[in-house]
Automatic annotation (TrEMBL):
<dbReference type="InterPro" id="IPR036397">
    <property type="entry name" value="RNaseH_sf"/>
</dbReference>
<dbReference type="GO" id="GO:0015074">
    <property type="term" value="P:DNA integration"/>
</dbReference>
<dbReference type="Pfam" id="PF00665">
    <property type="entry name" value="rve"/>
</dbReference>
<feature type="domain" description="Integrase catalytic">
    <location>
        <begin position="154"/>
        <end position="267"/>
    </location>
</feature>
<dbReference type="InterPro" id="IPR012337">
    <property type="entry name" value="RNaseH-like_sf"/>
</dbReference>
<protein>
    <recommendedName>
        <fullName>RNA-directed DNA polymerase</fullName>
        <ecNumber>2.7.7.49</ecNumber>
    </recommendedName>
</protein>
<dbReference type="InterPro" id="IPR050951">
    <property type="entry name" value="Retrovirus_Pol_polyprotein"/>
</dbReference>
<dbReference type="GO" id="GO:0003964">
    <property type="term" value="F:RNA-directed DNA polymerase activity"/>
</dbReference>
<dbReference type="GO" id="GO:0003676">
    <property type="term" value="F:nucleic acid binding"/>
</dbReference>
<dbReference type="InterPro" id="IPR041588">
    <property type="entry name" value="Integrase_H2C2"/>
</dbReference>
<dbReference type="InterPro" id="IPR001584">
    <property type="entry name" value="Integrase_cat-core"/>
</dbReference>
<dbReference type="Pfam" id="PF17921">
    <property type="entry name" value="Integrase_H2C2"/>
</dbReference>
Length: 267
């Protein structure tokens, strides 16, 4: 085994690790500062008069200074109890100082709780970090902020806007069909369907013309995805001849044609 000089045991209440946070003067007079804080002073009085009381069992006095026992395996065994007027100093030194790097809420909280304690510590750290002007100015969010939903308006008349989509392929039926064309009216939610042998442009165009336009009239708008079938010349020619505006959904976002998409499971 390697030999080394013996290392002295670390005193958990040693001020060495907190000296970079609180000044020597503040540490020397911390016990007096604690007694000037009404809440801490009341706690000290209760600890001195009834040390076995459950409400103060986690606290102890050492060298005229109040500490709280640390239940976590991380950090000091005894945590300095910080008066209200010194809490901003602790937060500033453990968040704003050049050696601390303006860490986020969780990492700043971890730094503080390893050495210090006060009631509502987590809330204090969160408020302080979230209010840090430098963090707000220089730290960019890791993802883009959410945008407001933009629902499609409901048409005021039937067959003004129609959603068109294909469902399949299915196992071939006795009639030789493997696909289902679905057209949904956005005003009434009325659906028109047809079973088809293929999903080619000519079959879709025939469905569009015979089952929809010649029966209910040409819609003002036709909403489809960007599939090759719907972008074909034969479908485009029919829509142009009927003065129907062809609206396309966003790529990889079928929710744009949500009404038709929602009908698919029922079919």
């Amino acid at each position: 085994t390697l030999s080394r000089y013996p290392v002295a045991d670390c005193d958990p209440t040693s001020t060495d690790s907190v000296g970079c946070v609180l000044s020597t003067s503040q540490l020397l007079h911390l016990g007096d500062e604690q007694r000037r804080d009404p809440d801490i002073s009341r706690l000290i009085q209760q600890l001195e008069s009834s040390p076995q009381d459950a409400s103060v069992r986690m606290f102890t006095l050492k060298d005229h200074t109040l500490y709280r026992r640390n239940l976590s395996p991380h950090g000091h065994d005894l945590l300095l109890v910080i008066p209200k007027h010194l809490r901003s100093t602790v937060l500033r030194e453990l968040h704003d100082a050049p050696t601390t790097g303006h860490l986020g809420v969780s990492r700043t909280y971890d730094r503080v709780r390893r050495r210090f304690y006060w009631p509502g510590l987590s809330r204090s750290v969160r408020r302080y970090v979230n209010a840090c002007e430098i963090c707000q100015r220089r730290k960019k969010p890791s993802r883009l902020p959410s945008r407001y939903l933009q629902p499609i308006d409901i048409p005021s008349e039937p067959f003004f806007r129609v959603g068109l989509d294909l469902l399949g392929p299915f196992p071939t039926s006795a009639s030789g069909n493997k696909w289902v064309a679905v057209a949904t009216d956005y005003a009434t939610r009325y659906a028109v369907t047809r079973a088809m042998p293929t999903s080619c442009a000519t079959d879709v165009a025939d469905f569009l013309l015979r089952d929809l336009i010649l029966v209910y009239g040409a819609p003002r708008q036709l909403l489809t995805d960007r599939g090759r079938t719907f972008l074909s010349k034969v479908v485009d020619d029919i829509l142009r001849s009927c003065s129907t505006q062809h609206k396309l959904t966003t790529s990889y976002h079928p929710q744009t044609n949500g009404l038709t998409e929602r009908l698919k499971p029922h079919l």
